[in-house]
Amino acid sequence: MGKSTTARMFADKGVAVWDADAAVHRLYDKGGAAVRAIAELRPAAVVGGSVSRAELRAWIAEDDGALQAIEAVVHPLVQQDRVAFADKAEADILLFDIPLLFETGAEREMDLTVTVSCSPEEQRRRVLERGTMDEAAFDRIVAAQMPDAEKRARADRVIETETLEQAEAQVEAIVAEIRERNDA
């Protein structure tokens, strides 16, 4: 959808950005807070002292309860990481880049929610162009996610990312709106 690019646009405007995906990577890395708990759930999922995403995917594919077990460990740790970021951040605006914002109920903790969106065709093109997954994997992920139309309906603001210029203008407007509101 252009989420990472849009988050960088916010950062370029002086907004402090916390990335949930990056937090999970830190938690899964060697010495990360999730490693021991994941090892207790599924020893084969820890390889060389860090959590193997490939092993997690394999486990999820074979066990219907695996994803829920993993989320029960990881979501509270991600929440702790987010709170620690917010406590330390010094910027006037904080952005929390959370792919599963609505699915996890985290929108209740936000002052304003923004979703980035583009056409399904553009989304497919961008993801497949990266070369990190095939069409079948892409289709599985999209099918498991909340539909874009529902995210758009639930968000306070929607940033259309069909073009960089379009997204940049919308980011600029949102930052200006928040700063104006904060100054009032």
Could you characterize the architecture of this molecule?
The radius of gyration is 18 Å and the shape is globular. With 184 residues, the chain is mainly alpha-helical. The two termini are 33 Å apart. It has a single domain, classed as Rossmann fold (3-Layer(aba) Sandwich), CATH 3.40.50.300. The chain has helices spanning 3-12, 20-28, 35-41, 53-62, 66-88, 101-104, 120-130, 135-144, 148-154, 164-183, and strands at 16-19, 46-47, 50-51, 94-97, 114-117, 157-160. A hairpin with a 2-residue loop joins strand 2 (46-47) and strand 3 (50-51). The strands form three sheets. The protein has a two-stranded parallel ribbon. Strands 2-3 form a two-stranded antiparallel sheet. Helix 2 (20-28) packs across helix 5 (66-88).
